[in-house]
Amino acid sequence: MTKRREPRQRRRRQAWTLDDARWFLESCWHAREALYAAFVLVLVLGLRRGEVLGLAWEQVDLDDGELYVGEQLQRVRHQLVRREVRTETSEAPLPLPGLCVTALKIRKSQQDAARARAGDRWIETGLVFTTRYGTPIEPRNFNRSFDRCITAARVSRITVHGTRKTCASLLAALDVHPRVAMRILRHSKIAVTMEIYTEVPDQAAREALRRLGEQFDS
Questions:
Q1: Which pLDDT score is estimated for 10?
Q2: What is the pLDDT at residue 170?
Q3: Which residues are CB-neighbours of 147 under 8 A, at least 6 positions away?
Q4: Does residue 6 carry a pLDDT above 60?
Q5: Which of 17, 20, 48, 134 is the most buried (most CB within 10 A)?
Q6: Are strands 71-76 and 79-84 parallel, antiparallel or unpaired?
Q7: DSSP string, 79-134
Q8: 210 CB contacts (<8 Å, ≥6 apart)?
C-alpha cells in the first residue's frame, strides 16, 4: 500500500470520491480495524449507523449472500435501545456484493476470537458488531472510530451519513449488476440506476476493490 498525501482540504466535505472510499477501506483492512466490515456495509450498501450497529447475525445469510435490515441501535434517554426498522429494506433482503460477504466473514472470525478471549465475561447479544465483551457498540464510539480511520487513511473528513453518496459509485466499480444495484440503492426505476452506471469507474480503484473482495479472506 503506497503512501497517500495529505488531502488539501481539511474541512468536512459532503461526500467522497470513489478513490477516497477505496483508499479508506484499504487503509482499514491493512490496519486490521475491528469495524472494517461495518464501514464496508455503510459504504457499499448505504446502511445507516444505527442499522449497522443493530444488525444481528440472524439477519445475515452469508451462503445466499443476503442481509435483512431489521433493527437499529440508538441511544435513548441514557440507554442503548434496539428498535425495529419498518422500511422496505426490512421486508425484503438486500443482496450482498462479494466485498460485503468477505468483510462479514472476516468480522465473524474476529468476533469468534474475541468471544474465546473473553470467556465467561462474554455477553451474548447476537449482534454482528460488538465490543470485545459482546455488548453493543456506543454510537458515539462508532463515530470516533470512523474519524480515527479517516485520519489514518489521510482522506477528506466527512460524516458517516455522507458516505451514502458514494454507495452507487462503489457498486459500479464492483461490477454489481445494475438490477442488483437498483435493489440496493432503493431505486424505483432502472433508468435512474443506469444513469450512474454510464460513468466509467477508475480502473485502479476497481482493481483494488476486487482484491479486497476476492484475494483477502479471514
A1: 47
A2: 87
A3: 157
A4: no
A5: 20
A6: antiparallel
A7: EEEEEE--SHHHHSPEE--HHHHHHHHHHHHHHHHHHHHHGGG-----BSSB-TTS
A8: 174
